[in-house]
Write a structure and sequence with these properties.
The protein is of the alpha+beta class. The protein has 10 helices and 19 strands. Strands 1, 2, 5, 12, 13, 14, 15, 16, 17, 18 and 19 form an 11-stranded antiparallel sheet that branches.
């Protein structure tokens, strides 16, 4: 009887031990199985989950605009006073809803494509209509002295500006400012040029690219990384490493993301590559995501972050490369004095913020972030926020700008392009990816805990029984 009891207890302990060991073995085995499945589905190839999400966004992408309305136009025009700005918005457009075009799978493990540009106004998500009128900068007049520095040319420009009755400020509808209008000053210029201009003109019906990215078939660590943009690895806008096209387009990254990684991505909107650093975990529709945000250092001055030296292109405006928070992209915009920043000059030098009134930078509302699912590398929620500004500077030969006292950065608008995975896609993602991973993890832990408890319980019982027998 004693033998049967002891043998039974030992057998129970052995079974518990085997279960615990089996649970432990499942960790590397399970991870290996998950790894193989993810590598198979993360490759950008027809038939994979990655390809479905890559071809067309798995959720609706919206671009919201807040446009800066000048509240004191008379004081700005007549006395050169600081502009008092009030943001009006959002004016919301649906974008990125067309599938990629000209898709070509190449023999070198890459795939090429073009991104179609399309924007559809969403009145129910906007504060007003596209016909709302805004008092804003006159794009053509303000850009003129930067494009033409010759005194004689500026005198000619001044005569055409005066004959068109143009000024430094103008009234334009939201639609005109964003997508284009026939400018009366440019219409007076007796040379062959397009008199239509707008902040994003031309947009609808145009394409961004050609992009060429790695599919990940040959090396999963290169999935979605851009091999070239417009058939070049360099942009030809900057010096040194700043000119490289780095990372992905932000829609996805190579799988198995770590918290200590720096996620690099290229944005044609700002004509440069940028990066995000880990900020924390987020839960979106039952899926755990890693948030990577663009840090303050990305727009810091070279005096603070030496690696940013090649983004400083004008030592006068940047005060010998000591100012932070704005990026001169005029080389990318045919010489037009366009400066990019974060909304409301977030993380910019105080002097830049002080040149205008009415801005209130707020990190929660104005930062750019990507929420990435760490196993697959898919971006399931994001907010790309940036501000478009123009450089306004004195031009004594142009009467419309004669009251400008010093060069300063004038905000036009800021935008928030954002998306979050839809309910249907989220359910599919939970069922096919995260749900299976969680189930395997639960099984591993259950086997290890149950096995360990059984092993300890039976062994303790065995030794208790044995000690009683010896007594």
């Amino acid at each position: 009887m004693g033998c049967n009891r002891n043998c039974g207890l030992l057998t129970g302990a052995i079974i518990g031990g085997v279960l615990a060991v089996f649970g432990g073995i499942l960790i590397p085995v399970g991870d290996n199985l998950i790894g193989k499945a993810i590598k198979k589905e993360a490759v950008i190839s027809n038939g994979t989950i990655a390809f479905q999400n890559w071809l067309v966004p798995g959720s609706s992408v919206y671009r919201q605009f807040w446009i800066f309305h000048v509240q004191n136009p008379s004081e700005v025009l007549d006395k050169g006073e600081r502009p008092k700005l009030e943001q009006k918005g959002p004016y919301t457009y649906r974008v990125r809803y067309l599938p990629k075009e000209n898709i070509t799978e190449n023999s070198d493990g890459t795939i090429s494509y073009m991104l179609p540009n399309i924007a559809h106004f969403e009145p129910d998500m906007s504060v007003g209509t596209e016909n709302d009128t805004i008092t804003c900068l006159n794009l053509a007049v303000v850009a003129a002295p930067s494009l033409y520095t010759n005194t004689f040319i500026q005198l000619l420009l001044n005569s055409w500006i005066k004959s068109s009755k143009s000024a430094m400020l103008q009234n334009r509808t939201v639609k005109e400012l964003l997508w284009g209008y026939k400018d009366p000053f440019l219409n007076k210029v007796p040379f062959p040029l397009d008199p239509v201009l707008g902040v994003f003109y031309p947009y609808n019906g145009t394409f961004d690219g050609l992009y060429k990215v790695y599919t990940g078939k040959e090396d999963i660590k290169t999935t979605a990384i851009i091999e070239s943009y417009k058939n070049k690895r360099n942009l030809s806008y900057w010096e040194g490493h700043c000119d490289l096209v780095n990372g992905t387009d932000g829609a996805s990254f190579p799988p198995f993301i770590k918290k200590d990684q720096v996620l690099r991505f290229f944005s044609s909107d700002i004509c440069r590559s940028i990066y995000g650093v880990f900020q924390g975990k987020q839960d979106v529709k039952g899926i755990t995501l890693y948030r990577f945000a663009v840090p303050r250092e990305a727009f810091a001055s070279p005096a603070e972050v030496a690696d940013n030296y090649c983004f400083c292109t004008d030592e006068v405006i940047s005060q010998n490369c000591t100012l932070a928070g704005v990026l001169d992209i005029s080389a990318c915009k045919a010489g037009r004095p366009v400066f990019i920043s974060l909304p409301h000059f977030l993380h910019a030098s105080e002097s830049i913020l002080h040149d205008v009134e009415g801005l209130s930078p707020n990190e929660e509302e104005h930062e750019t972030f990507l929420d990435v699912e760490p196993i697959t590398g898919f971006t399931l929620r994001f907010a790309k926020r940036l501000q478009v500004n123009l450089l306004v500077k004195p031009a004594p030969k142009i009467e419309a700008l004669s009251k400008v006292k010093k060069p300063y950065i004038f905000p036009l608008l800021w935008l928030n392009e954002s998306a979050v995975i839809g309910d249907e896609k989220a359910e599919m993602f939970r069922n096919k990816v995260t749900g299976r991973v969680q189930m395997l993890s639960v099984l591993q832990m259950a086997l290890m805990i149950a096995g360990s408890v059984l092993f300890l319980a039976f062994m303790c019982s065995y030794f208790i029984c044995r000690s009683k027998k010896l007594k």
